[in-house]
Amino acid sequence: MKYKLIALDVDGTLLNDEHEVTEQTQKTIQEAARQGADIVLCTGRGPQNSIPFMEQMGLSGYVISHNGAATVKVDTREVVHQYAMDAKAIVPYLDYFRKEGVHFDVNTAFQMFVDDVEGLAVEVRSMYENYLMLPSVLPPLHDLSDPIVKVTAFGQPDTMDQVHQDIAAWTPEFNILRSGEYFVDLMHPEASKGNALKQLAERRGYRQEEILAIGNYYNDITMLTYAGLGVAMDNSPLEVKAAANEVTASNNEDGVHAALLKYCLS
């Protein structure tokens, strides 16, 4: 098989709009793995709500989580690489979110924290349920035992447009990324899906031309441009399609299945 490492985004790519992996897509991924491909999920989710999809498909290996901030081994839950943020530098951003009434969560590799679990708005609680997450109450940052790898703001698209515009104008201490229509992420300046995929490929001994990446949003651009072949979903914004080498069908039309069939299994 030409492509030995296959990196798949999860939401909007692997999953349809019902947050499901279709049977057809699952079987095609399993066949690619059976023929020797190393499958890695490359997602904005944490490992705790992305590893279950690997297990559902009977796959081991790795997940690149938190948009590249933490790479985790599926079977042992070992964090093999992470980009830790400067906790003190995060404080002004959290102050801004609180002042503007913007919901946010703070993430270590395996845990997610919010200011008030019991008082979550209905739409916020629904979002966490859709993503199979249950956050804990945020303690003082200096009490966290593990490094912070990502801070995510959540809200309506026009609110996130303004948040992104506001904090992107500050001194660039972090990688500030529009990771979804309703999300803005802050991460270590070197944290990205592309950098994490490169680090994992080197660790596993794969050449760049042996890597296939499939994604659908702005946070996928770095991995699409790093991979030997970058494939954008048909439900991607135009800028993401322009960054990719090829475009496949949408996430609701088994685009991952179609791409693997065309470029790996044909």
Automatic annotation (TrEMBL):
- GO molecular-function term, one example from the UniProt record: magnesium ion binding
What's an example GO cellular component term for this entry? Answer: cytosol
Q: Pfam families under this entry?
A: Hydrolase_3 (PF08282)
UniProt KW Hydrolase keyword: yes
Q: Where are the transmembrane segments?
A: none
Q: Which UniProt keywords apply?
A: Hydrolase
Q: Which domain of life is it from?
A: Bacteria
The answer to keyword Hydrolase applying to this record is yes
Q: Which Gene3D superfamilies match?
A: 3.30.1240.10, HAD superfamily/HAD-like
Q: What is this protein called?
A: Hydrolase
Organism the protein comes from: Paenibacillus rhizosphaerae
What does UniProt list as this organism's lineage?
Answer: Bacteria, Bacillati, Bacillota, Bacilli, Bacillales
